[in-house]
Amino acid sequence: MTEPKSEHVLLSSEEYVQRVATFLREASGWCKDRGLSVEYDVVTLREERMAEYEAPSLYISKEGVSLAKIVPVGSRIIGAQGRVDLIGRVTRHAFLFYVGKGPQFSTQTVVGGKSTSSSSTPMLSRVDREGWYWIEARVRRAKRVEENLFIDLFTDVSDYEFE
To answer: Is the pTM higher than 0.85?
Structure first.
């Protein structure tokens, strides 16, 4: 029988907020390097079986015109340890936080009521270390969110062309 492996422990809101804040600082730098303005704000998140908490968000603009925002969605995401959305006037992209090699399928062989062997296979290719990933929808391939990918996705959501 093959089931998704659920070895991750529920994330605290503080850990999630720290991960989001770190990512927003990085994204802010990428934007500022390209002449964009950024402004931090906070949003209030309400997740099932957790106390309400605040997490940072980032608004990106150029010469007073809003282009996109990065908004935290939550720490309790199926198959991931957090999600933030990059939202523009055209579309949105979700970034998921994975630990290790991300979610895995586990198989276990049971003979006579005793486990004889087990193995795990990653559900997503290219998740190789902890971090924020974007899933390419057509081929279900994870891509680590780094500067060039972020700028490409920013252009996609905002329809803003860099000079």
So the answer is: no
Burial class (CB in 10 A: 0-12, 13-18, 19+), 6: exposed
Domain ranges of the chain: 9-103+128-158
Q: Which of 85, 93, 42, 90 is nearest to 66 (CA)?
A: 90
Percentage of residues of the chain with pLDDT beyond 70: 79
CATH class of the domain comprising 9-103+128-158: alpha beta
Return the number of other C-beta atoms located less than 10 Å from residue 51's C-beta.
7
Smallest CA-to-CA distance from 13 within 43, 40, 51, 41 is with: 51
Short-list 129, 141, 24, CA closest to 86: 24
Local structure of 22: helix, strand or coil: helix
**pLDDT tops 70 at residue 135:** yes
Four-point Cα dihedral 162, 68, 61, 59, nearest 10 = -140
